[in-house]
């Protein structure tokens, strides 16, 4: 928890008054939101935030942040989000919280993106964490079979009481066990070609800086390697 906290809080050093800030979903970004709530209590500090999930909206509201929407702002200055896995090339898997589609929209609309994680999420090769893929609920069984043809075992994510997990967009999540993902671009492209696939949890060409916290209290910074 300490490693997540220092990474989440460190990201707020990049936030300036007057910014529009995108906020991701997850346990590390929780600490970002909490610290931002403390910062807005200071004189002459104000930001607007766009949230990637209903869960994040609830937290942002709890801590007094000014929630806005794409209909009210022209662009996002800075987005802070977590990850389930990240490698040295800043290739990322997201979607453990089920908000990957909205996270990708926000990230692609942001001028600058920061990823905050604890060191357990830093890997040499993506794939130990199952890849989340958001799919339409209609015909999901067919979509799942086509995904499996790419060399995986996909499992529909379950929510409460054994019912399917439903994203904020009304879709299902398939957690896909591909093993090592050595070419995330190729896999992402092939998945997106399947009818019924809304979005994948593979992110690249988005993160500008990764802040990786560890229990000792230090933060490792990876930057300038968007590839």
Describe the structure.
The chain is α/β, with parallel strands linked by helices and 227 residues long. The chain folds into 2 domains: 2-122 and 204-220, Rossmann fold (3-Layer(aba) Sandwich), CATH 3.40.50; 131-200, ACT domain (Alpha-Beta Plaits), CATH 3.30.70. 26% of the residues lie in helices and 24% in strands. It has helices at 2-10, 27-39, 54-62, 100-108, 140-148, 184-192; strands spanning 20-23, 48-51, 66-67, 78-81, 85-86, 92-93, 113-118, 131-135, 153-156, 172-177, 197-200, 202-203, 209-213, 219-223. The protein has a 7-stranded mixed beta sheet, sandwiched between helices. Strands 9-10-8-11 form a 4-stranded antiparallel beta sheet, covered by helices on one side. The mean pLDDT is 95. The active site is at 103 (proton acceptor). InterPro entries: NagB/RpiA_transferase-like, Ribose5P_isomerase_typA_subgr, Ribose5P_isomerase_type_A. Belongs to the ribose 5-phosphate isomerase family. GO terms for molecular function: ribose-5-phosphate isomerase activity. This is Ribose-5-phosphate isomerase A.
Provide the spatial order of strands within the biggest beta sheet: 3-2-1-4-7-13-14
Query: What count of structural domains?
Result: 2
Q: What can be said about the biggest beta sheet?
A: 7 strands, mixed
Low-confidence segments: none
